[in-house]
Amino acid sequence: MAAKRSVAALRPALNGSVTSCLRANCAPRARYSSQSLSIRTSRPRKLLRLSPSCVRYASDKAEPEKLEKTGLYDLHTSRGAKFVPFGGYSMPVQYNDMGITESHNWTREKASLFDVGHMVQHEFSGPGAEAFLQSITPSDLTLLPDFNSTLSTFLHRETGGIVDDTVITRLSDDKFYVVTNAGCREKDLAYIASELEAWNGDSNEAVEWQVLEKQGLVALQGPLAAVILKEVLDNESTKALDTLYFGQSRYATIKGTDAKVLVSRGGYTGEDGFEISIPPYATAAITEYLLDSAKDKLRLAGLGARDTLRLEAGMCLYGHDLDDSITPVEAALSWIIGKDRRAKGGFHGDSVILQQLKKKSEGGGVSRRRVGFIIEGAPAREGAEVVNAEGEKIGNITSGCPSPALKKNIAMGYIKDGLHKSGTEVEVLVRGKRRKATVTKMPFIPSKYFKAPASK
């Protein structure tokens, strides 16, 4: 079955890229590990088997907001991180050795390592896994080859609104790896549990759902990412990396260890890079080994640089650029809707979404569309109104910042349909003043993904 699949998988747009598991009877089965890892930069050692009681933390004091910590919290602390609450976690926003703009530029020129362990990692398996995921997303997963990924969205049944954005990777015929947003954790877990309950109630084929609790996830991003990763992989894994293209994944092994990691080529910055899913016991040691193996090329980066990088790349952040009221068509994500799905439907909100895809003459279309803006003067932030020459509101800004690469103020937001074409001149209210703005195509800067050669 897999041999018959042929489809381009992951395309850039979002993912931003995702506190505790459900505690009811419908709670997913979580996987935990009681192992620990020790690696030396010069000579990595085999994994050491230690109990959780052997693991030391920088501080056992409770956070004021009872924030969760990723497996790299101690490492961030030791390297001078400044923390902020994000998605229920205490996350580094930047580090003492480098400002946000400097970190942004370092990523574009060399490589940075981001802790994205706050994201929620899932596995869906069983004979009904593919059909179940197709029922709650608009993607055509039947065409997705093994170890290929696609951007998708969970959808509300009646409205077609986006519950969350997600990346789905097929690991085998009946197994999928899915990553969702930390800020949507409780909502997503409740949504999936409810949908699975309904699925099982209809006597569909069985689906097993696991939340990979405490699983590490780091994003290695930048033009030197591949060079750095090759230095720490064993020989067999290094060879496979040469033919690992954007949107593809492979299991790999770190030199001198038996730690099996899932390496996915892609990311949230517009640069070439990888997201690496690591067993809980190995996360800290492997991350430190990566950093120590390329001290002149690789730096830790926080949420501050991650946000400016993703905005330059035209990628959405859920809760800002996407929410429950917005459909994929309004969000300029129509491309995630498979050709067969457009013809046959069969997914949540299909009656709404398929109607939106039709021409206006056929009663279709939407009232608003997601676009990019270049803004003169002061930068526009989330919530700023977009107005026409008469001062009438025609849209709103959902994300905005000065672009370190362009030296201009960029923003993302929604505008009235018909005014969404590139080059349309509008105005944005910034602190009570009207600023000139121009609707602009995204990404704001060219993407540098390592893509497969075009077939002749």
Automatic annotation (TrEMBL):
GO BP annotation list: glycine catabolic process
Residue ranges constituting the Aminomethyltransferase C-terminal domain according to the UniProt record: 368-444
Reaction it catalyzes: N(6)-[(R)-S(8)-aminomethyldihydrolipoyl]-L-lysyl-[protein] + (6S)-5,6,7,8-tetrahydrofolate = N(6)-[(R)-dihydrolipoyl]-L-lysyl-[protein] + (6R)-5,10-methylene-5,6,7,8-tetrahydrofolate + NH4(+)
Keywords from the named record: Aminotransferase, Mitochondrion, Transferase, Transit peptide
Major enzyme class: transferase
NCBIfam families reported in the protein's UniProt record: gcvT, PRK00389.1
Name of the protein this chain belongs to: Aminomethyltransferase
Organism: Lophiotrema nucula
